[in-house]
Amino acid sequence: MSEMVPSRGMALSFVAQRMAVVAAFVRPRTRPDRVRALAVAAAILCVVLGVLTAVVFGSIAGGLGQIGDRSDPEVLATTDLYYRLNDMDAQVANVLLVGAQHGLGIDRQRALAIYEQDRAEADGDLQRAAAIAGSRPSAQRPLRAVLNGLGRYEALAGEAMYLDGQGAPRAGRPPTAALLLYRQATDLLQGGILPAAHRLTQASSLALDQAYQARRSGALAAAVWIILAGLALLAALGGLQVYLAARFRRLISPALAAAFLAALVLAAGSATGLLGEAGHLRVAKVDAFDSIIALSQARAVSDDANADESRYLVDPGRAAQYQQAFESKSQQLARIPAAGIFHYDAGLARAIDAYRAHHADVAFGGYLGAEFRNITFPGERAAAQRTLAAYQVYERDDRHIRALNQAGHLRAAIAFDTSYARGNSNWAFTQYDNALSAVIAINQHAFNAAISAGKDGVSGWTGFIPAVTVILVIVLLAAAVLPRLAEYRE
After folding, report:
1. pTM of the predicted protein model
2. How far apart are CA 377 and CA 142, in angstroms?
3. Residue 362 zone, left/alpha/beta (φ > 0; ψ -120 to 50; rest)
4. What is the pLDDT of residues 123-151, one digit of tens each?
């Protein structure tokens, strides 16, 4: 006797029968079942909305902490490190320029004091950067490169300054051995340490940018999901109200009306809050931080360019190289198309005149151009314009240094280059640097305010407000539904 093999049709019929049984069991068959189903659906949707709200706001709070408490201080530490390293080298060049001479704008003791201050600040920046970014793989290699290179640099610079202190025949012409050591030191700085410091800043900026992108896009996407979840919850509550009104002749249930209002406040408040948080994040990152990083890098590059002037004077064998380096850094600061160093001033003046005539016409690029395309906050435009005017004065002074040197007036060129007296180059550079720092301060204040407002905005939404609202809605649901169900048990 052969075995009976069930046909495919029989199998499908069996499955359909079982599904029909399950559907009949699950489908609300009576009024109390329908009331319970609507109430349970509303309660589940409310819990989903509350959990989603708390989780998303918790993520935003974590992002604000990462951006404001870790990434921003890290970037500031690494950009200041770049600035301090450049200024250290500038002071070594100044020491070699003035030697034991007096009346040359800056004396040896002052240059050494500034060098030591820069070295202490650089050590502090390194410690802060290592404490914040040391665990990040992208930051570990440039950190090690800076640490290893800085020790060698300080040894070479220290020996160069020691040999120079043994005596130089005349101003601006240090002993050959000292000059050779300085070349090694500045080559190490330019070729290894500064690029590593720049990579460190890039890694820090990238971490901040990634945190911003993730949190802001998450906030916007979550706002959409919260709106959808809120609409579904309101639809469930509204459907329950309509059903009770139709089947139980209760025109309005006060408890359900209160639950509907609480759910509406939770959904609308959380969605509005998330959109507000996305706005705070944008102000902090795009409006403020993008200017902070551009201006901070401008400040570091400016100090490097200022050092190139001293290098240009102290090392005639490399004068053309250092002049080209100064021109390259000027283009990084405010790019003027097709302008050599002796045509740069005229091109910059034309670009500034065009901007003054129409603020939307920013014809110069570079770090300063990036700032002028991102002016946002009260007082920022006036401060940026003062910075640009001070930069223009400093650039013109550079040409005067070169003219004096080319005319054979080395001592006068050194005095004009290194003097902080009003009307001299270092005075002009200080005015420019102070103006640049003032614009950075405006943006830093706005950044801090946006982060603070963001933290205030998430307060309560990470747990307390959603939890209380969910409990309230469920209690009100029970208060609305249980009396109706009790009518069927009487």
Report:
1. 0.82
2. 34
3. beta
4. 888 888 777 765 667 777 788 888 888 88
